[in-house]
Amino acid sequence: MVHSTLAFTPEGVPLGLLAPQVWARDPDDIGKRHRRKQRPISQKESQKWLTSLEAAFNARAECPQTRLVSVGDREADVYDVLAAERPEGVELLIRASWDRCTRTPERYVWATVEAHAVAEQLLLQVPRRGAQPAREAMLALRFCPLTWCPPRHRKREGLSEVVLWAVQVVEVDPPADVTPIEWMLLTTVAVDTVKDSIERVEWYGCRWGIEVWHRILKSGCRIEQRQLETGERWQRCLTLYSVIAWRVFYAVMLARAVPEMPCDVLLEIAEWQALYCAIHHCPTPPESPPTLGEAVRWIAQLGGFVGRRRRDQPGPETVWRGFQHLTIHEGGIIALTGIVGSGKTVLLARLLDQLRNEGEFAVSDSLSFTVPRVNLDALKMALYYDLATEKDGDITMKTERSERALIRVMRRCQKPVVLFVDDGHDLHAQTLRGLKQMIEKTGRRGVRLTILLAGHPRLKHDLRRPSQEETGARATVFDFEGIQGHQRRFITWLLEECAPDVEPSDILAPDALELLAERLVTPLQIQHYLPRMLEQAYRFGEKLVTTTVVNTTLAPDMHALEPTLTRHGYNVKALSELLHIRQPEVRSFLYGQLPPGRTEELHNQLLAAGIPLAGHVSSGSSDLATG
């Protein structure tokens, strides 16, 4: 579980993350909901709101001249939160969830507020949401002070009453097919005028920003699909992606708030210069940076933003795609890694075609069939023959002359150059270092060169090894996880596409579908095994593919140690080089023929190298789960 506290300006610009909280629910606590009233808040998940409030206290101490208002949704409607002692300058604004008792003739919150006359009517532009079109909503505004009574079940604690102000907005005459808008806001900030009440409503509107940030974190950074071995690694990953998601959101909102500010407040020199050249199709950027509004709009254009109308503003989705695209414009080594069958080669081909069709890049790809023997000279030849014309003739193999000829044709393109290399995990370490030097030396001659490598996870681990620190520190690595976490949806979609007139449940039994989604992790595996299961069910005379058919079709050792390592790019030779042992000993390790002590030693070396081996230790002839 993740609970985050984000700081915003009243204009909605995100300033950063204050209190990220991560925890895992205890399975033993399931079914104890009926005892929640007997437990103190420190033993409940509601404690997260007090922790967030404490983060606001700490921020106030660092900014003593700034008033901080902690805004929470209906889940934050907790007595202990609104009754908590707060330092001066820290206030609360929470959307009510419970119709609590009050010291008023009406006795309850909603009745107390609705007893007051409408103070103002507000016109709200409601954007399109799913199938519902955009519309205008008229809202009735009411506000009043009220006094909360403490919870009845805690009467023995002698709790005090809480003085608050309530602000309510309710949609007037909503359409019949939509859920009407209604907010009941409780705040510790005095509300004396209509202007004050409108301001509190606007403050609560800023809370939607954290939902946008979560969407960037989940859909853009795909944090939920990160399959890491330990919770500690996942927390480190969450920390990194939280900052990335914040930067994307910060760019969007800062450009709306101060569009005339120079863009170097957000982008490094290399970033905005590469961005300018990419958008204007020129080799030389200006000396002074463009405005922030222009730069963010250009980034969004790289991500697919059209902006036909001048009032259209880029959104987070096009900006995060644009930032990914900008990485290619900057130049450098980009590694796209994924296990065998995850679809990275298909993605690489689509990206190559897209860049060629856009015409903004000079694109080259290595066509060598013997990938393990591809070296720097072969990649230089691939670049030269894709970029040169017939008048340039053949490239010489003499070192200095070949480099100068290559740089000459690259500069003539007057575009960023991208070299695509598949099966990059088979490149020698010396070749990777040579590619790094090629990028640096061509860059000094005014050429932006990007090497886009696709390969198994072994490529990522190789770039992170101490011996590759010089190259790995300059490489950007993206993990491509394909359909991991979405296997069930993928199988259902595949059946619907192949047999549109038949329900997937008429082909696969529900428990068989769950078993398939658990055992098969890549599109390649599903493509390989699903037709065989249909054939097997036909031979058995079964109308449905059952779990029995699934179990008899799937290879029993498909998730054993050797195939698992192979999917990550580690064959016997690669393991021999990594572990510094002879290949016969590697085979004995894979087949479970080594003594237990030696097996554990090699297993720990692989884990230390970052290779995911959760649940695999060769012992005897089987793979045993480990804690």
Throw out a few tags for this protein:
Transferase Inhibitor Protein From Tn5, Chain A, domain2, 627 residues, alpha/beta, five-stranded parallel sheet, Rossmann fold, globular, six-stranded mixed sheet, 5 domains
Number of helices: 23
CATH class assignment of the largest domain: Alpha Beta
Q: What would you call the shape?
A: globular
* Gyration radius, rounded: 30 Å
Distance between the ends = 22 Å
Can you give a write-up of this model?
There is one protein chain. This protein is of the alpha/beta class and 627 residues long. The chain folds into five domains: 31-206, Transposase Inhibitor Protein From Tn5, Chain A, domain 1, CATH 3.90.350.10; 223-325, Transferase Inhibitor Protein From Tn5, Chain A, domain2; 331-479, P-loop containing nucleotide triphosphate hydrolases (Rossmann fold), CATH 3.40.50.300; 487-553; 561-623. The chain is built from 23 helices and 17 strands. The protein has helices at residues 47-62, 79-82, 109-114, 194-205, 208-220, 231-257, 269-280, 292-302, 316-330, 344-358, 376-387, 399-413, 429-444, 457-463, 469-472, 487-498, 510-519, 523-540, 547-553, 561-567, 572-579, 583-590, 596-608; strands spanning 2-3, 6-8, 14-17, 21-22, 68-72, 90-95, 120-126, 135-148, 162-171, 182-187, 332-337, 362-365, 417-421, 449-455, 475-479, 618-619, 622-623. It is globular and about 90 Å long. The chain starts with a strand and ends with a strand.
